[in-house]
Design goal:
The chain is built from 15 helices and 13 strands. It is of the alpha/beta class. β12 and β13 form a beta hairpin. The structure holds pyridoxal-5'-phosphate. Pyridoxal-5'-phosphate (PLP) binds next to α5.
Length: 479
């Protein structure tokens, strides 16, 4: 495909301005260009075709099966887009939230914020939720800052450590470290669960909190989560729930009931708002009663006259984001939840778990299952047998691209060698799951028959195999 600069023809224009009908004013000379900007000279149709064709080379959930594990790339229902496009939401000016005199003009947005926070709290068994954080990792930072604020307030100056299992997403230790804590890593056992003995040994009165994901990033429900919570609370440590996998348990059990004190939600995963390429995310933080006074703000409150307003909680850790956070994601998440209702959300979790187990059942003869337990909404394999024949997890991922599907997650979780992590989500049909499994089986078959079968994959994509190290080190290199 040609670059748009290669299509440029001198003098060709997409837009021609009308003749000037006001007196011409000179721009100050220091603001004027010395040379014309090096822009491509193309017609409007050239531009439209160029970018439409480029966009068709992209992988997205609206165009391709996208089985990335841990990321939850599920379909984003269009009804949520219709709701978000309502002029009252779409044209909302962010500054309306900044002054009391303007609150009258954004009552609907304030009410939706409060309602959405209430639904999230109910779904996860939390007392209060704040929509401020704008990504899962940002919610983690809010959560760990809340833990710090709580312990500081209680005079627990000795509490400097946070326990995190080795299966955790890398953002967990990063967030806790930014919040000022020392990280204590505990290993997973061969069953893929937190090694309870190691956890008990790591636990003491200096521990401020424990961060876990449940189901964890091995796709397994932590069977001893009850004991983990009890031991943490015995030492006045707070239990943090990484909500990235909440889509496996909605309507089945609630983190709050399991003993979690603080959590983040990934609205862009669990509640089907668009994501990828870094945003826009929505990572609300939820808390039990203990931490509610410290929540980030300002928070939406109902005033005595029945109108909605904003107020900063007394002991708030402060703002995490400007204005309402990523408010338009809240509109989509709210529409999604209201569209499905309680029973619908439960079915989402059930179908997500069923689909992952269907894939696991079809592939476990060809790829080594990473764990013996039953998987929840995602399953993990180890491609060590294939790697021995020169088809590493990365080669298998590249081979999948030639079937017109996105690759599954590879090399995460870090605890599994040559890991391939697959999350089909609830929104895919049996036919799509079968097409993916057929492709994976064909790939395993070819890997066994021929050494290094996929060393040059992908072969059918517009861009072939890249030298990833060089691409990362020389951002400007041309292939
Ligand atoms: C995605 C994810 C995160 C981080 O969430 P972002 O919204 O990407 O910042 C944290 N933990 C787990 C397990 C995840 O999958």
């Amino acid at each position: 495909m040609q670059l748009i600069f290669e299509k440029s023809k001198e003098g060709r224009r997409a837009i021609v301005l009308d003749p000037l009908d006001v007196p011409e004013a000179e721009l100050p000379s220091e603001l004027r260009r010395k040379e014309a900007a090096a822009l491509p000279e193309v017609s409007e149709l050239d531009i439209v075709r160029h970018f439409t064709l480029l966009s068709q080379r992209n992988f997205g959930i609206d165009s391709h099966f996208y089985p990335l594990g841990s990321c939850t790339m599920k379909y984003n229902p269009k009804i949520a887009e219709v709701v978000a496009a309502l002029p009252g939401f779409a044209h909302l000016h962010p500054h309306l939230s900044t002054s009391e005199a303007l609150w009258d003009r954004c009552q609907g947005a304030l009410e939706l914020t409060q309602r959405f926070e209430g639904l999230l709290a109910e779904i996860a068994g939390m007392e209060e939720v704040s929509l401020q954080p704008i990504a899962g990792a940002h919610g983690e930072l809010a959560g760990t800052l809340l833990m710090a604020a709580y312990h500081r307030d209680k005079g627990h100056t000795h509490k400097t450590k946070i326990i995190i299992p080795d299966s955790a997403h890398g953002t967990n230790p990063a967030s806790a470290a930014i919040a000022g804590f020392d990280i204590v890593e505990v290993p997973s056992g061969p069953d893929g669960m937190i090694d309870f003995e190691a956890y008990s040994k790591a636990m003491d009165d200096d521990v401020a909190g424990v961060m876990t994901t449940c189901p964890n990033t091995h796709g397994l429900f932590e069977k001893r989560i009850d004991e983990i919570a009890k031991l943490a609370h015995k030492h006045d440590a707070l239990l943090y729930y990484d909500g990235a996998n909440l889509n496996a348990i909605m309507g089945k059990c609630r983190p709050g009931d399991l003993g979690f004190d603080v959590m983040h939600y990934n609205v862009h995963k669990t509640f089907a708002t668009p994501h990828g390429m870094g945003g826009p995310g929505c990572g609300p933080v939820g808390v039990g009663a203990k931490l509610a006074p410290y929540l980030p703000g300002p928070r939406v409150i109902k005033q005595e006259d029945g109108r909605f307003g904003l107020a900063m909680p007394e002991k708030s850790i402060g703002r995490m984001a400007p204005f309402f956070g990523n408010f338009m994601m809240a509109v989509r998440g709210y529409a999604y939840i209201r569209h499905l209702g309680g029973e619908g959300l439960k079915e989402v979790s059930e179908a997500a778990v069923l689909n992952a187990n269907y894939i696991h059942a079809r592939l476990k003869g060809a790829y080594q299952s990473a764990f013996d337990g039953r998987f929840m909404h995602e399953c993990v394999f180890s491609a060590t047998a294939q790697a021995a024949k020169g088809a590493k997890a990365v080669d298998i991922a590249k081979a999948v691209l030639d079937y017109g599907m996105h690759a599954p997650t590879v090399y995460f979780p870090l605890t599994v060698k040559e890991s391939i992590m697959i999350e089909p989500t609830e929104t895919e049909s049996r036919e799509t799951l079968d097409a993916f499994c057929d492709a994976m089986l064909e790939i395993a078959d070819a890997a066994e028959k021929e050494d290094g079968a996929f060393a040059d994959s992908p072969r059918k994509t517009p861009v072939g195999r890249l030298d990833e190290v060089r691409a990362a080190k020389e951002l400007n290199c041309v292939y």
